[in-house]
Amino acid sequence: NAGVTQTPKFRVLKTGQSMTLLCAQDMNHEYMYWYRQDPGMGLRLIHYSVGEGTTAKGEVPDGYNVSRLKKQNFLLGLESAAPSQTSVYFCASSFGTNTGELFFGEGSRLTVL
Amino acid sequence: AQSVTQLGSHVSVSEGALVLLRCNYSSSVPPYLFWYVQYPNQGLQLLLKYTTGATLVKGINGFEAEFKKSETSFHLTKPSAHMSDAAEYFCAVSRQGGYSTLTFGKGTMLLVSP
Fold this sequence. Notes:
The structure holds 2 protein chains of 2 kinds. By secondary structure, chain A is mostly beta strands. Chain A has strands at residues 4-7, 10-13, 19-25, 31-38, 42-49, 56-57, 65-67, 73-78, 87-94, 103-104, 108-112. Chain A contains no helices and 11 strands. Chain B is built from no helices and 11 strands. The A-B interface holds A 4, 33, 35, 40-45, 48, 50, 58, 90, 92, 96-99, 101-102, 104-107 and B 9, 32, 36, 41-46, 49, 51, 90, 94-96, 98-102, 104-107.
């Protein structure tokens, strides 16, 4: 029962470094999402994908890129990390309807120094 | 456009007391409404949702919420709090018709004291 798996769970970067967060789901979901969670801000959508090979911008996309080369994987990249990107990142997946439940990973905590 | 306002970033109750977490939404079209719960160091999980039909919806762990269109509210309640209910709760909204992503509120931390 893996569900949604995020790697890595923790990472510390220096300003300007790059990194990629990997999200994998084994539920054959069409839709996948990347959110960031900051204290007092709730969850904000960074990017999402409605199917393999497609991506779309969410509420806070600047400074991030994504790719969905395979249906089960959704990658979030930071090309040049900034301290403002210090956050907890959550990946989620769903069957895609507006009434559908989102299934979340356990989160990846990123600190940018 | 759609948005959610959760009143109170923290709510404290005693074990056995009523839990009431408030959520008001704004949506230009009929909404779908959700409550998610997040336990420490975990991702969010769905508590309950309103789509269409009965306006009082029941979820897991004894929680329920009522959709009140006239008040644009979707408050979450539980008659008797348990220590294990301590967590952060998020209200969220999407819209009927076409595809839309989920918009989350800022969350309410529920603290339960013995």
